[in-house]
Amino acid sequence: MKHFNISSIWNKKTKYILLFAGLMILVLFILGLNISIGSVYIPFGDVAGILLGEKENDTFWNIVWHIRFPRAVSAVILGGALALSGYLLQTFFHNPIAGPFVLGISSGAKLAVALIMVFFLGNGWKISSFALIAAAFGGAMFSMGFVLLISKKLKSASMLVVSGIMIGYICSAVTDLVTTFADDSDIVNLHNWSMGSFSGISWNNVRVMAVVVLLTGGMVFFMSKSIAAYQMGEAYAKNSGVNIRFFRISLVLLSSILSACVTAFAGPVSFVGIAVPQIMKLMFHTAKPVLMIPACFLGGAVWCLICDLLARMLFAPTELSISTVTAIFGVPVVIYVMIHEKRENL
Amino acid sequence: MEQYFFRAKKMTVGYDGVPLICDIDVELKRGEILTLIGPNGAGKSTILKSIMGQLSLLHGAVYLEGEDLCAMREKELSKRLSVVLTDRVRPELMTVWDVVATGRTPYTGWLGILSAEDKEVVKNTMELTGITELREKEFLTLSDGQRQRVMLARAIAQEPEILVLDEPTSYLDVRYKLEFLSLLQKLAKKKGLTVILSLHELDLAQRISDKVLCVKGMYVEKTGTPETVFKPGFISSLYGFTKGSFDECSGRVELEKVTGTPQIFVLAGGGGGIPIYRRLQREGIPFATGILWENDRDAPVAEALAVRVIKERAFEKIKPETFQRAKKEIDGCKKVLCAIEKFGELNRENEELLLYAKSQGKV
Question: Which residue from A284, B31, B75, B208 lies 20 to 30 Å from B197 (Cα-Cα)?
C-alpha cells in the first residue's frame, strides 16, 4: 500500500514534468513554423540562422525580423495572457465557461481603445502602447463592473454568461458606430484591429506587452496559494487566512489587465480564455493553480500560434481574423465542457 | 490572564445591520463543548458565522484569551480557529488528500507547498477521522456523509484551538454520528480543543455538551449546563411543539398521544409496555395503562402516549385505592392487553387485575 502511494506520487510528478516539457517544445516548434511558413517560404535552417544573428539574405532577414518574428512572439505572449485571464475569471466566478470574451470584458476594452484611437488619430496625435493599454484597461474595468453588479444579483452561472455576452454586444455596437464616423484612412486599420488580429505588431509593442504580461503573470503566480484556498469557496478561504477583499480586488484587476493588454494590441480574441484552461485541466487532471498558471500560459501560447498560422495560411493571401479561427476550435471545447458539467451536476 | 478561553460579550448578530439575536453572553474554558440548539431559522448559523468572523458583529465583541477576534488578522485567526460549514463545496479535480491538505494553508509558504511535517499532520488527521481509505478518491464523487467527514478532517488538520461547526452531524449515519461526537469529545478533553457547534439531535446535544445555548427569538432563551437546560417541559416550549413530546431525561421523543375514551387497558411494567404503547399510538387507539410505579421504565412513555396512567408512588406497595381505580378503568375498556411476562411478590395486584379481566373475557 505504502509502496503504491509513493509510486503514484512519483508518477504524477513525471507526468507533470513530461507535460510541461512537451508544451514548451510545442511552443518553440510552432513558433519556428510560424516564422518559416507564409507567402514567402523560408526554410527552417535559414530561420534558425537569422535568429542566431546571421544576416546573409536581406529579404529573408527583413521578413523574419520585422514581420514574422514579432508577430509570433506577440501570439505567444498574448495567447498566454488570454488563457491566464480566462483561468482567473473561471476561478473567480466558480464558473467553467467564464472568460474575458464571453463576459464582455474584451469588448469593453475594444470600445475604449476604439474611442481613444479615433480621438487621437482625428487630432493627428500619435498613441503610445501604454496609452492604448490604459484605455483598454479602463474599458475592461467598465465591463467588469457591470458583470460584477450582475453577478451580485444573479447567482446562476449561465445567466452571468448571458449578461456578459449582452454587454459585449452593446460595446461592439458602439464600437461599430464610432468606426463608421471615423475618417476613411483610419477605418481600414481600425476595422482590421477590431476584428482581432496579430498583424502589424512592432518590436516596440512586443516589449511593452512582454513587460506588462510578465509582471502581471508573475503576480498571479504569487497569488496561487490564495487561489487554491479560494477554490474551496469564499468562506473556507477566509478561514484559511485569505484576506478576501484584497484577494477579490487583485483577481479582478489582474485578469482585467491581462485581457486589456491583449485587446490593446490584437483586438478581441474569442474563446481562448475559456477553452485553453479547460483543456489544460483535462490534460493535467488537476486544477491546482501552481501547475495551472504556467500550464495555461503555455497552452494559450500554443493555441494562439496555431490559430494565427491558420488565419494567415488557410485562404492566403487573404488573412482571416484571428477570432474566426479561435472560435472554430474553441466553441466545441466550450460545448463539451457545458455538457460534461451538466452531467456532473445531475 | 483571563479565566475563560472564549468569551462572547453582549454580542448582537444579524444580517445587513438588522439585529436577529441580541446580547449574547457566553463563556467557555479550554476544552469545553458548547452546543447551540433551537428551532430551524432561529439564527444558530448566524451566531456561528458571527463567531467565526464571516459576518461582522452588530454590537459587542468576541474574545479569544482576552484578544478581540474582530481585530485579529485573518492569518493569525486561521491558526487558532477552524470551521466546518453547511456550504456545499465543489472543489474541481481535488482528491480527498488535497482537500484535507487545504487545512494546512495557514502554515505553508507562499506557494502553498506542503512540508514533510504538514504531510504527517494530514496523514494522522485522516487516520483519526477514519478516511484514510478514501485518500486518492476524487472529492466530488463522495457521498454527502463522506464529504462531511473529509471537511471535518480538513478543519482538524488546521490544528486550531477552537473549532466551530455548523450542523456537522447532518448527512451522517448513526455510526458516524457517534464516532464523530466521540472524536470531538476526545479532542476536547485530551487536547484541550474548545468546540462550538450547532446540533439538531437534542439527545446527542444533551450528552456531549458542557454548555448548551438555546436560541429562540430576539434573545437567547437559556444558557447553561445540560442539566439546567433540559428541565421537563423546556424543550417542547423552546421548539414550540404541541404535537408529541420530548423526554428531557432520556432525550427520547414520542409522537402525539391519541385522545378519547380509552378502549384498551395495558397491564405493563418493566419496559414491556413501550412497544405496545407505540403500536397502539400508530394504530390510533386510545388506551389506559397501569399499574406502574413512577420510576418504572414504562412510565415516561406511558405518560406521553396513554390517555390515563394508573400510577403508584415509587418504592411503595400498591394501595387498595390504586387497585380499585385500575379495576374501574378495566371496566370501561373493551379489551385488556398484558405486557407482563412474570408476576412477582410486589405486583400481585397486577396479576389479580389480569385474572379479573380474564373472568370478564377481555383478555
Answer: B75
